[in-house]
Amino acid sequence: MAQTKKSVSEFIQDAFCPMVAVLCSYDAETICRKNNLTFAELIQPFCRLPSEVGYRDPSNTLIVLKNLRLEIKDYNSLPPQNTLAKKLLNDCVFNALTNGSTSNEREIDTEQYQLHIQNTTPWFDAWRDCFLRIAYSGDHEFLKNYLACIMVVSTSHLDPIDAFSKLVQLQNQQQQQIPAKLPKWFMTNIYKYFVLLHDVTEGEESKAISVFGDLKQQYGAGNCHLLQINSKRPGQTNSDTSETTNMPDPWRLYVKQSSTSNQQQSQTISKRDGSMSDSLSNLTELIDQELNLNTSITHPLGLFDTSSSDLSSITTTTVDEGYDGSSITTTSTIIHGACLTLSDHDRIHVFMHEFVTKGLLLWVESNLKTFNEQITSRRGITKLFSMPKKLFGGNASTVKNQPTISSTNLTNDSMEIVFRRAGDLAFLFQHYELAYTNYYAAKRDLSREQAPAFYAGVLEMCCLAIFMQESSATRTYPTQYMDEAIEIYAAVCRLPIFATRCVLMSTEILKSKEAYDQAVQQFLKLSQEDSDLRGALFLEQASYCFLNYRPSYIRKYAFYMVIAGHRYLKAGQRLHALRCYNDVLKIYGRPNWSLALDHINFTLGKQSALLNQSNDALRSFNALFAPNNHIQSAQQQINFFKEYLTVFNQLTSFETLLPELPVPLVDNTTIKILLAGHQQPRMGGHVSNCNDFDFEESRDIWSDLERTITAHDRRASGTRTQINLFTSRTHNQQHPIAVAKETIRVEFYVRNTLQVPLLLSEVQILWKFSLGGWKRRASTSTDSNEEWKEYTNDTLTQQTDQFVECDVLSDCVIFPNDTSKIELSLRPRRSGYLTILGICYRLNILVQNTSEQTNWPYGIMGKTLFHVRGIRLNSNRRERLNVVHGVDKRLEIQVVSEAPFLHIEFSPMPAAMFCGEIQSCLIHLINPSSMHSITRVRLVTSQPNLITISSIDEDSLLTYTNESKSIWNHSLNQQSSILTLVSHHHPLLANSTRTIRLWLHASHLAGEMNIDFLFLYESDVFQQPLRHRTVKHSSLFIITHSIGFQTQSQLTGLGELILPVQIENSMAAQNTLSINVQQLSCISKQWDIKNLSPISQNSIRYGENLSLLFKCKHQENHDDSLQMKHISLVNDETINDKYVDISKNPIGDFFRHFISNIDHTHSTHRHKTPNPLSIPPISLILLWQIPLSNQIGQLEIRHGLHMISPSIEMSHTQQEANDIIQYELIYSPIVEHKFTKILFLPVRLKLFNRTKEKLQLQLQLIRSSLDNDPLLSSCCLWAGMTEQFINLSAYEHLSLNLRACFFKPGFYSLGNISLTIIDKINSTTIPIKSNTHNYFVDIRTLL
């Protein structure tokens, strides 16, 4: 708010200082002009007395004057006319801002706001000082009337005494003429002081002394002074430049600038600042519109009969215009006081001191005594005549009901005028107590005389006199006096200039007393529409007062600051209006203030555009379309947008860079970069879906598959995993690697936050390209400068031969509050470093109203930048406590040289399969490069056990034979999960195609089956950082139920197994399809299978099952060959070659995958050399087929394959030794006997050696008790030899006859048999756990 370095008392004292006129002869002015000064300007810097002076009041009390200042003006000077006065006031307000006036700031911190507010308002201080300087004097006061007149004549005059006489005569004639003319005088008998001016370098000192003696004799020694100046000659001054430079120039703040220099400075500033672009020809229009000159305002000079000759100097004054109707104050380069020395400065100081002490103060003492005598003599008469008036006269009406007049019929010798004149004289010379006494007396009398202007004047001065008294700290400031004076001046007398002066004085007093609420009320009283500039300044000061409340009224401050900005606009002060709106922008930027914020931003944008402040204008207009603004209606947004387009096209007509647009908003989390273009099928198949943005390349499976191939590849050592799709969920710490002349696609979502549809046209990627890198390095060579030069399409001009080719999206409509997906692509033409900055496009809205379409502005070209950030880090405590994001380099792409690209198609790729079904598809490997060949292509999948490959010629799934039993002649080593499609020996040449058949085996589990394919290919032209490239493909298959195939082996005897096989139709939904079982094959080294079930119907319908019984017999296999036995389940003996050879591919490969999954001791991946597989004892392979009709009605046969390896479980639990020796007991389970003698039960023990080696066994028949089982009587007793040693050859069967003894009936166990294997090499025995503990016999009594 307004602050000054002076105290409030000093401010009021300087505002009301004694006025002195200077009347000079022509010869005296000529002497002063040597210093580029008039006499009044010459003595102005010395008008403040540096020391204290004093005088005595009528009561003979010494009054000490501190810091007394006189205001000295030329006799012919006149106050500016109303038009020029307003122009000067506008100038000072504008210049205080444009001259770089800075002010300190203070911080206001509350719970809701944290603001930095300017602590001072230098423009208001400048306006206040200018207002008080040019304000005229009214008829009701004498504060601005001249007290004295200094008459100056030089000694070079032919007759100086006569010249003084003529000057005195001229002053008397002007003062006594009727009607009165300016200047106005304090009283009839003013103080006259006579100065004889002597030029030291040209005048004669003797003549000066002689003339000064005559002058003192005629006018008195105390009223005359001899002033000697110009102690240096002009020539001497010009040669001594150092002395001239060191001489002070105290006149620079007082001398008015010439109109010529003003005009030149104005032209310079108008070229520099676009805000001062109005020409001088618009002055009349600006004055009419912005200075409110259309209203009829009576100038106070109209009260006097001023001739045209007196005003000629004003009407011909040239005013320089440099803002929206304002003039510019410039700094003059003219040297003042060039002929004066420091001694001359001292002489002027002495002259002013003697003028005050020896002349003016004595005149003040005399007149104060005269006024006191008049008041004393007339006070008794006044009391005598006031009694009848009180008895017979009515009550005087209040001041508010007084007629609207500014003049009065009081005469100069009336008592009220004497009171006022005495009070003004005492106030001017700092006798505030005497001044208050006279003002209060005049107030009491003037209220009865019906003189509102005089009454308001004495009320104003009563308040100031009370405050200026030394005892004012203990006295209450009469605010009601000043409020009443302001109301009378403004409403009754229609004198706003005096009401304004009252507000300026009173608010300073109230602010010093921290009565900010009363200061606000007085500021708001004069914020009406009659003066926009004054209203704006007062509203701004009122808003600052709200900040000084305790607590601060932030929202009231913002409200009145916005109104002040509006009034500044009406006054033509656009810069101040923008400042006011900007100051409250943060306050209204909070939620729930959308309407106020829209008004502020719209005004800021429009006015900034008029001032050619393009950046501020665009920033404000962009804020109108903020995404959180939901209050704007569609029509309002259309109006905003139309104005925005108009302003935008005007401001950017000379711009080169694309401006940033507010809508639509880009969702930066949805930005995806895909280093692959759209691929069209060339062979009529399906292309790889890794070229789609919804492809999930971020899964860990892809990196695992790629590392599976590169783990043992020395050439790929140190090469990072190839990624083509970069999103917000991928780790983007490394730069993407693209290939020159290949397409890079960008996908993102944009959101329209407006209520109207947006039309985007000419949409393309905004990029920056460099040949050297992303960071420029210091270099001096030409090649390096060219290498590190950056190229971009961020420009409004058309460019050709660019390094990057962009595809353009012609049109895109985004509906209100809707989100739209946009996909764009670009192609770098050479290697380098590419940065994707954002998008550029032409923005407009769809206007449905036909009338608006005709005059709707053309769309604007701009940009929206991308802002990406990495994933949130959470590795340490600091990152967990704060929101820290990693680096994201997905928009910074490294482009390598042109390289071959592998195009892959699948034809045809099945979408749905039955469980266990086998289908094939073709893989077309296409090398579209015209120069380079692809040396190697390898394939790895997520489920290697479900796929295999063959040549394109091997299109048959089933290979038939007429042999039901054969030997597996193919290798059964561990298969690698990496399939080589193209090798170094047979590379894929340029512009060539190779086709490979892929066999798919559906899983046995129904549901969704996903298989990920990763093709890794290499070329001789690949170099770091691109050692190899990959093509990824993910296929989803819908697997439905087909058949259920299960079995469980049962041991029936030594070396024999029973395999019951259950086959059922397990389709989930009821249908008419039937499953035809075709063949069951057994693969084993030791077992031979035989079908025990009759072959009848092999077709299984929905809900049916097929039960088959097979018997497997152990056989000797001396050569350890793998035997295959095929059993046809088709009841058609006429078919030749009815057996399917399952050792042929692809069934053979699927069998290898099957047994490799069973072998858990070997890994299925990362084996560089083949490893033999562990063959299960028995493997069953079931072949089946389903006939069905395809979409065109043709019969189609679907073939399937199920494989199981039944576990051979004997009837008793076996351990490791039991796998070597197999034995059983054969006896009668129930025996009836008459126990007249001992019962001997024959028991046969059958032994079988399952190994190739000869074994020695130890047999022991022991007695043991099973008393822990209450159901058993006991164990049997064995008769005969209880221990014997047995030798068994390889695969030998042996039977031993034993006898068990029983003495009574009961339930006996035969489990007390112990068998051990004797290991002669290690001299140990290997116990064979008894498998006879479940053999029991029931001995009954025969009746």
UniProtKB/TrEMBL annotation:
Source organism, top-level taxon: Eukaryota
Domain TPPC8 second Ig-like: 915-1031
Disordered: annotated span: 230-249, 256-277
Residue span, TPPC8 first Ig-like domain: 697-913
Compositional bias per record (Polar residues), positions renumbered to this chain: 230-247
Ranges for domain TPPC8 third Ig-like: 1050-1205
Sequence ranges of Low complexity compositional bias: 257-269
Name of the protein this chain belongs to: Trafficking protein particle complex subunit 8
